[in-house]
Amino acid sequence: MSQPFQLALVQMHVEGGEPAVNLARAETLIREAAEGGAACVLLPEALDVGWTHPASRELAQPIPAGEPCQRLAAAARRHGVYVCAGLTERDGDRVYNGAVILDRQGRVILKHRKVNELEIGQPFYARGDRLNVCPTELATFGLMICADGFAEGLVLSRALGQLGAEVILSPCAWAVPADYDNAAEPYGDLWRRSYIPVAREFSLWIAGASNVGWLTAGPWKGRQTIGCSLVIGPRGEEVLQGPYGVAAEAILRVQIRESSANAIATADF
Predict the structure, then answer these.
(1) What does the pLDDT look like over 142-164, one tens digit per residue?
(2) CA of 42: how far to CAs of 7, 54, 216, 238, in Å?
(3) Cβ partners under 8 Å of residue 80, min gap 6
(4) CATH topology of domain 5-268
(5) Which band of pLDDT confidence, cut at 50, 70 and 90, is reported for residue 43?
(6) Is the predicted pLDDT of residue 32 greater than 80, yes or no?
(7) Are 108 and 123 within 8 A, CB to CB?
(8) Domain limits of the chain?
(9) Lowest mean pLDDT: which of 68-72, 218-222, 262-266?
(10) What is the pLDDT of residues 107-131, one digit of tens each?
(11) DSSP per residue, the chain
(12) Residue partners of 123: CB distance under 8 A and separation at least 6
């Protein structure tokens, strides 16, 4: 990494089956993140339609030509920031759980299709079949989506490390049952166990940004997505964890440096 930069994790509220509402919210939060000094903005998984929402079959659009990607690209261009976002993607008769990294000109410089989709997600999404990284003036970014991070043996995130990723970005949708007791069992250990070994092994950063809000349809209807977005630094240390809760929308800011010894973490919520 040539210089420090601010990464903003946008822990946004996603409303299932409401892409117009969600895209408008994402545009507003990208603007707010950029105004606060972010050079790169990380948004959640399937932010257009919501993870495993049945409407994805009808509402998914192509990448990059579809309206969701085009609107995020325009926001990246308008505010001069990199944007990483999870979007449902239509490709012919298939729908993928996808994600993109957009550069400051709004160009797609990396696209990923989720490989390690949970069993309950498989009726909605075809599986991806490749990984890649993209060098930028900020860092060499790797891209994965949510459960890709805990694939058996952490093989996907380790592959991104082998490919030279310095910062792995992961749009997520972390959900718990409606009666989950966060005081008794604070959320996040699964992700620490998944992120910390890889971050330490390859001296890289891993950032996972989760949405918030109720899941209103699909196999996990009635569960809540609860934020707790997480950043692990290159020594395997926890740099930041976002607030917990179905209403815990937040912009979380982290200063990414080659050495995490001087990492600065602040949060707006």
Answers:
(1) 999 999 999 999 999 999 999 99
(2) 7, 25, 24, 18
(3) 34, 104
(4) Nitrilase/N-carbamoyl-D-aminoacid amidohydrolase (3.60.110)
(5) very high
(6) yes
(7) no
(8) 5-268
(9) 262-266
(10) 999 999 999 999 999 999 999 999 9
(11) --S-EEEEEEE-B--TT-HHHHHHHHHHHHHHHHHTT-SEEE--TTTTT-TT-TTHHHH-B-TTTSHHHHHHHHHHHHHT-EEEEEEEEEETTEEEEEEEEE-TTS-EEEEEE-SS--GGGTTT-BPP----EEE-SS-EEEE--GGGGGSGGGHHHHHHHHTT-SEEEEEE--EE-TT--TTTS-TTHHHHHHHHHHHHHHT-EEEEEE-EEE--SSTTTT-EEEB--EEE-TTS-EEEEPPBSTT--EEEEEEE-SSGGG-EEEEE-
(12) none
CA dihedral 54, 189, 227, 204 (to 10 degrees): -100
Amino acid at site 92: G
What's the per-residue H, E or C state across 192-240?
HHHHHHHHHHHCCEEEEEECEEECCCCCCCCCEEEECCEEECCCCCEEE
CA 150 – CA 134 distance, rounded (Å): 22
